[in-house]
Specification:
alpha/beta; FAD/NAD(P)-binding domain; eight-stranded mixed beta sheet; about 40% helix; FAD/NAD-bd_sf; Lycopene beta/epsilon cyclase protein
Length: about 575
């Protein structure tokens, strides 16, 4: 870690006379290009001045400048790829017949009920399933460890881990690195809204993942680290996996917890470009004297230009657990993947300019501890149904997270009990065909309805509303939710959309500021609004079904045949979670 005395670097630029020949202009242009490339960006200078260690798998687990350039290259390829299906590597294949009719080789590690591929977040589900008495293995291409940068979460979401026996109450207290209140929501000088106990815990992923890993091992779980998945062959009775080191595993079910860039996910989607993207940059730094509260969402500016793109920038800020003067600040934006989209390095250059004013501190006064960044693709048709027998997506790979959130730990804790129970039932009843497994990742109207919010918070490249529209819209929505009270505001701040609170908010917005409605139509477009209306109607229907029909049906489920009982249980869960009724204030 280095205390940085930072000054903006200006690269050498040669002026070229209009009277020069074309050849001279080309030589001068080449000279400028070479000399500009030799000049490091402010981001590069900062990142190369920091000692990088302890990088981990999963989103946000890498901190080096080289890792930033690799991720930017991935992002650039996404932006420039053509629309439509692409050729992808075929990881999963189907063979008719039973595994005993085929040779598995001499390196069979073992046969399991479940193999989880991807250990950083997959270890949580693996431990919950192991606690139910299933034989579970975890395959991870790196070491299973959490990153240094803290995860911010609410206590209610952490308590979900105790209910599935992944952690104890005492262990939860041990992994909490920071606690802070109050928490702010604010939009460009339009006024602030303060809440308590929303994302007000900083949890150490390093401690958390290690604690869960040791629990998993103590329950008899098997871990294969530094082993990546090469292929999966699906037979009538088993899934057989080949690993990069030549090992073979067989399992009744494979859980794909390899995140947004899972090779299985790429095969299923055939390389299709994401519908949206959340780009996140930030840092953890030492030197913040005012450091007792957090920002859940804050906007300090209207739509601005970064590189060749219009962007609406948002902020989050949290006290860090590494010291009383340490603070993490994130800057993020929502965009569609296109050739003019800014790179992560472009955003970081903007971040260094804007963050000091946002936090009221000079960059020269800060000791940068680490720089963080990530890209989070989203798809409208989420969650992802099972595409193969005996293979199920989990976590970010399934698309279960809200399109306006970045990082899936909160949604993981929310759905962990539902999924671990459903997967256990599927194993117990041998209901591992793709149709049965798809019922574990069902249509959820509250998740689909969130798409409107991402579209409203994204800046168009051809603006047909004012540059301050997004801040104005968010402020009037948050003000209305605050007037309606905690039952409306708090679920929304935790990415849970419910029919009643949403309908009340929309009604109050239309009464409070009806003149904003035409701008909403121009910003999101009629087709998106019509599509959203369908999901809003289904949100109301799911609420009705879960509140009134579920209590009538549930008592009779135990008398049904195994497969029918499994399907109805999943249906009742889809109503409940799809309406956001799993949330309790």
């Amino acid at each position: 870690m280095v205390v940085l005395q930072i000054h903006q670097f200006n690269g050498f630029v040669s002026s070229v006379s209009r009277a020069q020949t074309n050849q001279g202009r080309r030589r001068a242009s080449t000279t400028v290009c070479v000399q500009t490339q030799l000049a490091p960006s402010l981001t590069q200078k900062i990142m190369e001045s920091i000692s990088v260690g302890g990088e981990a798998g999963g989103a946000g687990g890498a901190y080096s400048y080289n890792a930033l350039k690799r991720l930017d290259n991935i992002w650039s390829n996404i932006c420039t790829q053509p629309t439509g299906p692409q050729e992808t590597q075929q990881i999963v294949s189907r063979v008719s017949g039973f595994s005993q009719d085929y040779s598995m080789g001499n390196n069979l590690v073992g046969t399991f009920d479940i193999v989880v591929c991807g250990g950083t977040l997959g270890i949580f589900l693996a431990t919950a399933l192991c606690a139910k008495g299933l034989r579970v293995a975890v395959v991870e291409r790196n070491a299973i460890k959490g990153r240094d940068q803290e995860w911010n979460i609410s206590r209610k979401e952490m308590k979900e881990l105790t209910e599935v026996r992944v952690l104890t109450e005492d262990e939860i207290e041990e992994v909490i690195a920071a606690k802070f209140n109050p928490n702010r929501c604010g939009f460009e000088n339009l006024g602030d809204i303060w809440v308590e106990d929303i994302l007000n815990l900083g949890v150490s992923p390093a401690k958390l993942v290690e604690t869960v890993k040791q629990r998993f091992i103590s329950l008899g779980g098997v871990i294969l680290e530094d082993s990546s998945l090469s292929s999966i062959v699906i037979y009538n009775d088993l899934a057989v996996m080949q690993l990069s080191k030549g090992d073979t595993l067989s399992s009744r079910l494979v859980i794909d917890a390899m995140g947004n860039f899972s090779p299985i996910l790429k095969q299923i989607k055939r390389g299709r470009k994401p519908d949206g993207m959340c780009l996140v940059v930030g840092s953890c730094a030492h030197g913040f004297k005012e450091n007792s509260s957090s920002d859940v969402i804050y906007s300090s500016s209207s739509v601005t230009r970064v590189a060749d793109s219009n962007v609406q920038l948002f902020w989050e800020a949290f006290p860090a657990g590494s010291g009383p003067l340490d603070r993490t600040t994130y800057m993020f934006t929502y965009t569609e993947p296109q050739s003019t989209s800014p790179s992560l390095e472009d955003l970081l250059e903007e971040y260094w300019k804007l963050m000091p004013k946002y936090q009221g501190v000079s960059l020269d006064e800060l000791e940068i501890l680490r720089v963080v960044y990530g890209i989070f693709p989203t798809y409208r048709n989420s969650p992802l149904p099972a595409a193969f027998d005996r293979v199920l997506q989990f976590g970010d790979a399934s698309g279960i997270q809200s399109p306006v959130s970045f990082g899936g730990f909160g949604s993981l804790t929310r759905h962990l009990g539902r999924l671990s129970n459903g997967i256990y039932d599927a194993i117990d009843g041998d209901l591992l065909d793709s149709d049965s497994l798809s019922k574990l990742n069902p249509y959820m109207p509250n998740l689909s309805a969130s798409w409107l919010f991402q579209r409203a918070m994204s800046a168009k490249q051809q603006l047909d509303v004012s540059r301050g529209f997004t801040n104005e819209l968010l402020h009037v929505n948050f003000s209305c939710m605050q007037r309606l009270g905690d039952p409306v505001l708090r679920p929304f701040l935790q990415d849970i959309i419910q029919f009643g609170p949403l309908a009340k908010t929309l009604g109050l917005v239309m009464l409070t500021k009806p003149q904003i409605i035409p701008s909403i139509f121009r910003q999101v477009g009629i087709p998106v609004l019509l599509d959203w209306s369908v999901h809003f109607f289904m949100l109301g229907l799911y609420t009705l079904l879960s509140a009134y029909i579920d209590p009538l049906l549930r008592p009779s489920l135990e008398g049904l045949p195994s497969k029918t009982r499994f399907e109805w249980k999943r249906c009742l869960e889809a109503w409940k979670y799809g309406a956001g009724l799993d949330y309790e204030l």
